Amino acid sequence: MKACTRIALALVTVVTLAAVAASQPAERGVTATEIVLGTSMPTSGPAAFWGVPIAGAMDAWLKNINDQGGIHGRRLRLVARDDGYLPPRAVANTRELVERDNVFALVASLGTANVFAVRDYVIETQTLWITPLAGADIWAGFRRNKYVFSAYPSYIEEGIYLTTYAAQHLKSKTFAVFYQNDLYGQQGTLGIKRGIDRLPGTKLVRQVSYEVTDAEVAAQAQKLRESGADTVILYATPRHGALIVREMARLGYRPTLVSSFTLCDPAMFALAGEAWNDIYLSSYFPLPGTGDAKVEAVLQTLSRINPALARNPFNAIGGVAFIEPFLEGLRRTGPNLTKDRLVSAMESIRNWDGEILRGVTYGPDRRQGTNRLFMVKSERGQYRKLTDWYVYPTRF
Amino acid sequence: MTQLVQYLVGGLAAGSLYALVALGIVLLYRSSRVLNFAHGDLATLATFVAFTLLASGIPFPVAAAGSLLSAAAIGAAFFFLVLRPAREATLLGKVVTTLGLALVFSGIMQLVWGADTKVLPFPLSDTRVYTLGQVVISEINLGTILAGLALMALLYVLVQRTKVGLAMRAVAQDTTAAQALGIPARRIFGLTWALASALGGAAGILLAPVVYLDPFMMLDPFLKGFAAAVLGGMDSLPGAVVGGFLLGAAESVFAGYVSFKFKTTFAFAVIILVLMVRSEGLLGHEYRRRV
Whose CA is closest to B174, among B83, B289, B281, B79? Predict the structure, then answer.
C-alpha cells in the first residue's frame, strides 16, 4: 500500500470517528431538543390506586411544561413502566430504563420495597434519581448517594409524630397498628414503637398486618377489636385502609383512627363512606380542597389535560410534587445540562416553595429535601388542617 | 367461643365466594379438562358491565342479569370462536389460550374503565348489621352467603335434575358415547362455558361490594377458588362448595389465632396435606381410563 493511500485511510478513519463522537449526546438521555426521564410505577395491581394518577399527573404536568416551550428549549419525555407494585418487576424496569432507554434521570418510582430493591443498582450505576417515593429512612446512613435527591417523608418519623399527636391531643393511651407487611408498613410500625417508647403511660397493644394481595380483612378487624386499643393507626393501601375502617365500623368497634399521609386522597370518602369521617392524618403538602390557591391551580391544569385525574386529586397533585424539584433543578442548571451540573443546581435549592411542595432544601451534605409534616382531620367529605408544621431532624 | 364464631362467620362469607368461583372452574374442568385461567378476569369484566349499567341508571336486578348474560355470551363465544376451532390443540395449549384470554380481558378493563378502585352500588347495606350476642354479621355478608348458597342450589338442580344437566354429565363422562346417543355435544360444551362464566360473573358481583371493584379484584379470590376446587376435588361440584367453605373458614380461624402473615400459606399447606392423603381431593373421584 502506498504511503498516500495509508494517509488517506487514516484521515478517513479519524474523520469518521470524530463524526461518530460528535453525534453522541454529551449526556445520556439529553439531546439539544429533548430530555428523557424514566419511572417505574404500579399502574396495575394492588397499588394502581396510587400509581395510575401519579404517573398520569407526571405526564400531564410535563405536557404542560412542554406546551410552554419546555425548559431551556428542551422538551421532557417520560418513559413510564408498570411494575404492578412488585419489587422484582421494579428491578427489571429500572435496568431497562437505564440500560436500554438511556434515561437522563429516574424520577419518582413508587413503593418503599420497590425502591429498596433497586437502590444499590441505581447507586452503582451513578444514575440520577430525583424524589424516589419511599420512606426516606432507607437512605439514612447510606453513603455514596450523590445522585439521589429525596423529597419524601420518613415513615419512621411520621409514626413517631402520629403517635405523639394522638397521645398529646386525642388522649390516646393504648395503640394498635394495622400495617402492610412490607417495608412501608414495617417502617411506620417502627416509628409508632419509637413514639410509644418516648410517651410514658402509652402502650402498643396489637400489631395486625395484611398482605398486599389480601382481598378482604375481616379477621384483621376482629383482631383489632379484640385488642381493645383506643387508637388504631393505619399504614395501608387506600383499598385496604377503606376496607379495615368499614369492617371495624361493622363490628361496632370505633377507636380513634389515625393514618399515614398515604391515605389522604379525597377518593377515600367515596371508598369508605361514613367510616372515613373523623380520621386524623398527617400530610406534607397542602391538600386539595383546603384553600391553597397554587394547589387548586395545578389541579385545574391537570384536569384540563387529563380529566380522569380529578377523580384522585391528592395523588394527582402528588405526581406534580414528585417531579417539581427536578424541574427546578433543570431550570437552575441552564442550557448546558450535565449530570454533575444538575447536582450542583439541586444543591443550591434552599427553602424553596414549589407549586405543591413547600420549604424544600438540599445542600452539598443534604439529600433529604423535606422534613416537615402537619395534621389534618377528615370531616364530612373534606379535610381540615389542624396544626402548623412539625419539623423532625434530617438524617442524610 | 364468641371469637371463634366471629372468625367462622367472616371465613364463611369469604368461603361462599371461593365456592362460587370454584364451581365455575370445576364445571368447565369436568366437561373439557381445561383449567380456565381467564375465569377471574371474565368475572371482573362482567362486574364492570354491571357497574356501567348501574351508572347509567338501570335498576340493580336488570343490571345484574345483563352482566350475567354478557358473561355467558363471552364464555360461549370463547368456546365457539377459539377453543372449538383449536380442538386439535393439546390440553396444555388450550390452557395457555385461556391465559392469553385473561391478559386480553385485563387489558380491555384497564383501557375502558381505568385501574382506579370503584364502588359498585349494591342493594344490601354495608353498615346495617345483625348481632347474636357478641357475634356480628353485616347485611351484605349475610346476603352474599345466602345468594351464594341459592346459586349453588340452582346449579345442583340444573345439573342433577334436568335433561340439560343429564346431557352435561353425559358429555363430561364420555363425549363420543354421548354424541352417538344423539346429544349435541358441541352445544352442550358451549352451554357449559356460558354457565360457568355466568357463575363467575355472579361471584364478581357479590364480591365487588365487599372488596371494591378494580381490574385486579379477582386475583386473590380466583387463586383461592382454584385452591378450593383442588381441595374439594376437581371433578366434584359438591366438592367445590365444601372446599370453598372449608378454605374460607380455615384461613380465617388460622389468621385469628395463629398468624395473619401465614394465612394463605396455611390454606395451601392444608391442601397439600389433603392431597397427600386423598390425591383426588375431598369429594373427588379417582380418574380412571379403561385401556
Answer: B289
Q: Are A105 and A323 spatial neighbours (Cβ–Cβ below 8 Å)?
A: no
Chain B CB within 8 Å of residue A312 CB: yes
User: Which among A44, A249, A312 has the least Cβ separation from residue B127?
Assistant: A249
Q: How far apart are CA A279 and CA A264, in angstroms?
A: 10
Read off the pLDDT of residues B93-106 as tens digits, 9 standing for 90 and up. 989 999 999 999 99
The count of residues in chain A is 396
Q: Tell me which H or E stretch contains B74.
A: helix B60-78
Among B129, B32, B142, which residue's Cα sits nearest to residue B90? B32
How far is C-alpha A339 from the geometric centre of its chain's CA atoms? 22
The C-alpha atoms of residue B22 and residue B242 are separated, in whole angstroms, by 10
Distance, C-alpha A65 to centroid of its chain: 20
Comparing CA positions, the residue from A246, A285, A293, A250 lying closest to residue A265 is A285
Cβ-defined contact of B10 to A223 (cutoff 8 Å): no
For the segment B218-235, the average pLDDT, to the nearest whole number, is 90
Q: How far is B264 from chain A (nearest CA, A)?
A: 9
The strand pairing partners of A207, in sequence order, are: A177
Model pTM score: 0.87
- From CA A129, how far away is CA A241, in angstroms rounded? 29
Query: Which residues, 6 or more positions from A21, have their beta carbon under 8 angstroms from its beta carbon?
Result: none
> In angstroms, rounded to a whole number, what is the distance separating the alpha carbons of residues B98 and B283?
26
C-alpha cell at B103: 391478559
**ipTM of this complex prediction, to 2 decimal places:** 0.83
Q: Which of the four pLDDT bands, split at 50, 70 and 90, describes residue B88?
A: confident
